From TrEMBL:
Residues reported to bind Mg(2+): 228, 249
Protein's recorded name: tRNA modification GTPase MnmE
Family: Belongs to the TRAFAC class TrmE-Era-EngA-EngB-Septin-like GTPase superfamily. TrmE GTPase family.
Names of required cofactors: K(+)
InterPro entries: G_TrmE, GTP-bd, GTP-bd_TrmE_N, GTPase_MnmE, MnmE_dom2, MnmE_helical, P-loop_NTPase, TrmE/GcvT-like
Location of the GTP-binding protein TrmE N-terminal domain: 3-117
Annotated GO MF terms: GTP binding; GTPase activity; metal ion binding
Residues the entry annotates as binding (6S)-5-formyl-5,6,7,8-tetrahydrofolate: 20, 77, 117, 427
Domain G intervals: 217-304
NCBIfam families per the UniProt record, alphabetical: PRK05291.1-3
UniProt-annotated location(s): Cytoplasm
Amino acid sequence: MDTIFAVSSGAPPAAIAVLRISGARAFAAVQQLAGNVPAPRHAVLRTLRDAAGEPLDQALVLCFPGPRSATGEDLAELHLHGGRAVVRAVEAALAELPELRAAEAGEFTRRALLHGRLDLSEAEGLGDLLMAETEAQRRAAIRSAGGAVRRHAEDWTNRLLGLAARIEAELDHGDEDDVAGADPLPALRTAAAALGSDIAAVAARPPVERLRDGLCVALGGPPNAGKSTLFNALAERDAAIVSPIAGTTRDRIEIPVVREGIAWLLIDTAGLAEETDDPIEAIGVARARDALAEADLLLWLGDDAPPLHPCALWVHARADVEGRAPAQADQLVVSVREGRGLDTLWRRMADAASELLPPPDLVALNARQRSWCNAAADALARASLLDDPLLFAEELRAARRALDAITGRAGVEDVLDALFGKFCIGK
Ligand SMILES: Nc1nc2c(ncn2[C@@H]2O[C@H](COP(=O)(O)OP(=O)(O)OP(=O)(O)O)[C@@H](O)[C@H]2O)c(=O)[nH]1
């Protein structure tokens, strides 16, 4: 495997640029540039020189011998002056050395995963941490990066292994006459059902995507209800066209917004026209219906009660318009023109969000982790109904494979490229 290097701090110019080198030839590279290799985990000041002996920079040099390093390999850090030319010159000198090359996005973390320094759920948490923009996102990501998902998976795996050991013993010795005692299968089936429902309960928690990508809030209602006007007011910018002409909004428009410490994805939709001859408008209406159905939270601006939705707020928009029908008791009265009701609406949205987002003190799973949890829970549920110890053992093995996939111990090659492609170079 090549030895890789990259600037791991922010883009130059900056006061300091931290350049990391990881791999079998990391310390040879330090030796070449700095003249010698400092003692492990001791920061020393060295003049770095190119192959001709010309000084490149004065740098703080640190060496972390593997496997007790961030990547699990020999790892060196050069704390350079963060000017562009300095960084470029040191990178050029490193690139000249045999078996050294610039790192790809996420390659340091990928090596850490490869060498067991962290598991897949922790790497996913780290990816989310790098992208976190709100406090809630940061808190959830730091929990995953710190191993909370891994610890759940390990705890479940340990319980599973306990069951597996007992059923394997039964399979090996169950037909021997000298083994006294009752048939252990009923107790094992009960334990498998309990473990399956524990796993399913965690998988049923609100998904971390709502925190990470924003809680989807769709504005829906008939044409001319004031959706785009309210959308612009919530987004605090003129994102959607507003006009008195019914059917102005034809497609869904999405705007990410951070408010009340929560990331929201606001979605404006075409008005739900009863009938239309316009094929484009018909497509817009179909898309609007999909957006409303899929939204985590529906803001309904119709005068009729909202359509069936797990979480809807009913808004009486354009409240200042003369001759407007009075609001129903459970409607939120809003007039964008008069700036009325918007703060209350945000508050009600935040109240709804507290039900829809992962609770701050509990582990939340992403879609990949959820689907493996559900696969494990399903296998355990099936096992709990089986009378045949052989089939029971087979379902436990299926559950084990699913739990292993959560932490990246099995069958996850395809997700690695997708995950690490999102990381920055030098991470
Ligand atoms: N007086 C008053 N007029 C409003 C208010 N909100 C929207 N309007 C007007 O109502 C008309 C329709 O508003 P839009 O925001 O375009 O309505 P829409 O629901 O997005 O309409 P479609 O694109 O047809 O679905 C426009 O003329 C707006 O200026 C309000 O709070 N008060």
